């Protein structure tokens, strides 16, 4: 995946080269000039022993200063492309048109890019924990950042994205049946009355003809809960999907 360079990073790289080469070249030239000054030949005398070194230092400093000046001029040529973060609206300035997703400097979210254009993002609430999540047309699978449940996403073309690897809740309806009991205690009769909204005689008639269907068309979690309540009163119940 191609990298995305920010214009500030490019300017910083040029500035470092200006400092190391340009300023270094100036310092080297001044040092060579100082050696020449203290070792320059006087009338009817030869120069000092460091005179040749001063010439070499000044000569070597010229290409360094030239390279530093070149990099300084390139700072003005750096192009700037401003892109607003679709999440927090913060400005992100790049040195080139983006060819890949890049991270917002403000909110640190990954900004989706397609065909060198920043895609809009959409906000959706998780149906399980009500946490806000965001997605774009590039999102293949949206898992809630809080509870990790999969959230189906609708793209601009109307398609709905799902993942075959995500864990799905059981949406089937179940049938709960009473298969047996040890004793028709008062607590068991009262439990069935409250569960089924029947009178005592209807519950007692039901207990004489087992197995019998108690409830149908209920979710799995409710079937599990009611079966557990009956088990407390020493009654056996099972449930199966419709």
Number of helices: 5
Inertia-based shape: rod-shaped
Q: Report the helical percentage.
A: 25-40%
Given helix and strand content, the structural type is: alpha+beta
- What is the N-to-C succession of helices and strands? HHEEEEEEEEEEEHHEHE
Mean pLDDT: 84
**Proportion of β residues?**
15-25%
Profile the largest sheet: 3 strands, antiparallel
Number of domains: 4
Radius of gyration: 39 Å
How are the strands ordered across the major sheet? 12-11-13
Instruction: Give the terminus-to-terminus CA distance.
Output: 49 Å
The count of β-strands is 13
- Segments where pLDDT lies below 50 for 5+ residues? none
Could you describe the 3D structure shown?
This protein has 4 domains: 7-75; 79-119; 124-168, no CATH class; 173-241, Ribosomal Protein L30, Chain: A (2-Layer Sandwich). It is an alpha+beta fold. The chain contains 5 helices and 13 strands. Strand 7 and strand 8 (132-135) form a beta hairpin.
Structural key phrases:
about 240 residues; alpha+beta; 4 domains; three-stranded antiparallel beta sheet; two-stranded antiparallel ribbon; 5 helices; about 35% helix
What secondary-structure arrangement, pairings included, does this model have?
Blueprint: H1 7-39, H2 51-75, E1 81-84, E2 91-94, E3 102-103, E4 110-111, E5 113-114, E6 117-118, E7 122-125, E8 132-135, E9 153-154, E10 160-161, E11 173-181, H3 186-196, H4 200-207, E12 212-219, H5 220-232, E13 235-241
Antiparallel strand pairs: 1-2, 3-4, 5-6, 7-8, 9-10, 11-12, 11-13
């Amino acid at each position: 995946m191609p990298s995305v360079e920010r214009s500030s990073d490019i300017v910083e790289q040029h500035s470092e080269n200006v400092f190391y080469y340009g300023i270094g070249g100036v310092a080297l030239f001044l040092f060579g000039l100082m050696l020449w000054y203290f070792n320059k030949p006087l009338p009817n005398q030869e120069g000092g022993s460091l005179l040749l070194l001063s010439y070499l230092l000044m000569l070597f400093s010229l290409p360094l200063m030239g390279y530093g000046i070149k990099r300084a001029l390139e700072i003005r040529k750096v192009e700037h492309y401003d892109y607003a973060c679709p999440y927090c609206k913060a400005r992100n300035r790049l040195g080139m048109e983006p060819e890949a997703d890049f991270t917002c400097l403000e909110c640190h979210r990954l900004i989706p890019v397609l065909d060198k254009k920043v895609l809009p993002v959409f906000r959706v609430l998780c149906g399980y924990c009500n946490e806000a999540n965001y997605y774009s047309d590039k999102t293949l699978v949206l898992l809630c950042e809080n509870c990790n449940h999969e959230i189906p996403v609708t793209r601009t073309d109307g398609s709905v994205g799902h993942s075959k690897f995500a864990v799905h809740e059981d949406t089937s309806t179940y049938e709960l049946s009473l298969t047996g009991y040890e004793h028709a205690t008062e607590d068991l009769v009262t439990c069935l009355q409250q569960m089924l909204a029947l009178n005592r005689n209807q519950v007692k008639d039901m207990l004489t003809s087992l197995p019998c269907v108690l409830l149908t068309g209920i979710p799995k979690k409710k079937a599990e809960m009611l079966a557990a309540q009956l088990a407390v009163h020493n009654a056996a119940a099972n449930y199966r999907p419709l």
